[in-house]
Amino acid sequence: MKNFNIIRQFCLTALFAVLYFQGSAQTNFKSLNYLYRISGSKTVAGIHNREPNANPCLWTDSISVLSGKTPGLWSGDFLFLNDDVDARWNMIYQAEKAWKKGSIVNIMWHTCSPVFTEPCAWDSTGVLDHLSDEEWTSLITDGGTLNNTWKKRLDGIAVYLQYLEDKNVEVLFRPFHEMNQPVFWWAGRKGGNGTSKLYRITHDYLKYNKGLTNLIWVWDLQDFSTLEADLKDYNPGNEYWDVLAFDMYSSDGKGYTLAKYNACLQAAGGKPIAIGECQVLPTSAELEEQPKWTFFMSWAELTIKHNTIAQIKELYGSSKVLVLDQMPGWSHDIEK
């Protein structure tokens, strides 16, 4: 009987451990651990702060005034226009402040085509350029002319990301957002030598060549009707990303459907999923039905344009949604 009790206790302990770790995967990142922890129960509210980088908290402050609550996720952008490139340090210092206040920090990069110099414009000579197949080959081939140009550009942003690492700031880094959106120079190229290849090159260069260890990699797509196939065609490899995000602009005219949610869940394979961008906010009822969205990030001015103040207040006051004063802070380890 004694041996039976010992075996029984051992089995119960092992079962508890399996369930414990399955439900709360542990990583080296406090904020990523937190996303694992809340997945299935809560969703962090966020808003993107698009230009100007001279005022990198403009939209966070605006939504705080409207809702009476500050989002738990702050987001900035390296951007591409001359004034915004010159003001990148303002954005980085704001990211540091946001982290110290307890926000999750997200940084994306509307970047100029490597065919042209930086800064650039929102046109075919900049962010909306289309590379020829020959130019793309040069970009993804080690030692190619555009490959070298791209790595020099990565050297430039690595300085800012290194500063944040030195300040112990973790960054949800979301390069090449909307991989399946061909309007951007980097996007719309399927397959192993397409957009996903550039993502891997960028990941490896920043991680191994520049030695950055504070980046939580976000892989992001837009919600086209081809989403299920795109989740396969644009995957850079599961070892290359930590969070799967999709941008919900109702590109297929259907909104927050269970089909989109389930497609993302399946592709994520247990990793956190998130609404990387949106103009129409999810409702509390939708978050109740789709509980594993770990955060949503509405797009700057589109938040106010596409949602009433009442809708914003209702969502920000929902028991399903976490705002800044409900965040745990990052000065201690986040439990599993």
**Strand order across the largest sheet:** 1-2-3-4-5-6-7-8
Shape type? globular
pLDDT < 50 runs, ≥5 residues: 1-23
Helix content: 40-55%
Strand content: 5-15%
Q: Structural class, please? A: alpha/beta
Biggest sheet features: 8 strands, parallel, barrel
Number of domains: 1
Question: Distance N terminus to C terminus?
Answer: 35 Å
Listing every helix as H and every strand as E from the N terminus to the C terminus, the arrangement reads HHEHEHHEHHEHEHEHEHEHHE
Query: Roughly how many Å is the radius of gyration?
Result: 20 Å
- Give the CATH H-level superfamily: Glycosidases
Structure description:
The chain is an alpha/beta fold and 336 residues long. The chain has a single domain, classed as TIM Barrel (Alpha-Beta Barrel), CATH 3.20.20.80. It contains 13 helices and 9 strands. The protein is globular, with a radius of gyration of 20 Å. It starts with a helix and ends in a 14-residue tail after the last strand.
